[in-house]
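hey so u asked for the seq, here:
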Amino acid sequence: MVLIVDDRPENILPLKKILELHKFSVDIADSGEEALKKILKTNYSVIILDVQMPGMDGFEVANAISGFSKSKDTSIIFLSAVNTEKKFITKGYTSGGIDYLTKPVDPDILVLKVKTLQRLYEQQQELRATQDSLRNEIEVRKRAQEELAGRVEELRLVLASLPQMAFTVDTDGRIEYSNEYWFDYSMDPMAFPAVHHDDEDVCREWPTYFGRGIEFTREVRLKKLATGEYRYHLLRIIPIKQQDVTVRWVGTFTDIHPQKMTTELLEEQVSTRTKELLFKNTELETTNHELQQFTWVVSHDLKEPLRKIQLLNDLIKDRYLKENPEAISYLDRSIKSSARLSKLIDDLLAYSQLAKPAVFKPTNLNTLLTEILVDFKDTISKKGAVVSIDSLPIIDTVPGRIRQVFQNLISNALKFSKKDVAPVITISAELIGGKDVNSEPSADGQFCRIIVSDNGIGFDEKFLDRIFVIFQRLNNRTSYEGTGIGLAIAKKNIDKHNGVISAQSRLDEGTRFILVLPVQQVNEPVATY
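ran it, structure tokens below
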């Protein structure tokens, strides 16, 4: 903005019009006093100041303006129609004027001077703003450097207190600091320690991570200067960043030699032990196979004389003891004991055969159960039992073994029925999502839950863990026949099917046996001997 100061309106108005025609913003004052008041409130780029004014003349106003800090970039042009002598012109310049024009003034010259001074004022303002910005930036950088120097000193104090080799690397990749432990492995504080020749790839990898500004971690063997031995260390170098810019790197070498030696020793021991276990496992498999063969032979050899004992007992009973009831009673007890022993041998033989590998194949459970019920036809008819079987899915099983499971469960349901109450046996199935007896039903589940329930005598669930253990019985032999092996066989068969078997029961309220079997199985290679 331009300020015109003159006590005569006829001088102000032409100048104002001329300047406004050239797009200048113009303000006016009709006295020196008024001009000073306006200068204190407004910034002016150029002041056109008349020399001859009542009160304060132009020179006095100029002298007063020179004391205002906010007007130090303002240019003053003196105008005078009377004081044209050299001494007045000199006084104008010494009072702070930039130019001294005498009237009449050439408008074009005046406009050119004002334009030049306006441009100079704007440049000075821009320069001042730039200087202020630079001063602020310098101050900020100075504070940042001071703060950074303080942090670097703190970092060095921390690194010096670490019980391990610690160092820092600048942005050019040079080591700028290393603590006292460094000199156990390197005589030069600015050079990395010597590494084992098998670990030299670490030296080639580090520059890549340095260039990408990412953490670098490796195991490396360093040569200790005092002893010449190579010790394992964990090298870790991490970038320190400010506003996503890496300002330095901090690294450590942690001695892991004892742990590494222990690990290698353990790995060697594990390898040795694994080989021993593989050898023992092979021996065990061979022994197990031989034991199975032995069990089969012994069972067969035991059954042969047992069959002769039963046959001879029957013959003696029929031919020679018809008139001796007491002898017949004793002989009947002997015959029953022989039968129980024969059944026990059969069950033991069946239990021992479960260790043999078998092949899974898709099995129609409905067809399988129909065949099993034919075997129990006489018992079912005799007891008036009702057997209900829902539609069961086709799943992968070992048919002979899953047949044993259902035979045992149905046999128990018929055997442990209430006196004078017809047995009711229900078999149902559904697909579920997980290998758990309480898993939720799922249309596309990978497991099948089969429930075999009856209305028999039941048992106390506190004995649940015992019923699947071989030779464990919850009832006395005189009331209910059995060897105590049936449910153990069922449990082992379900285990071989990678499944789960459990039961729910209460005394006199029946029993629910729950089987969970995978729908699909994977056959394992069969070992050969």
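The chain is about 45% helix and 20% strand. The two ends are 111 Å apart (CA to CA).
lmk if thats what u needed
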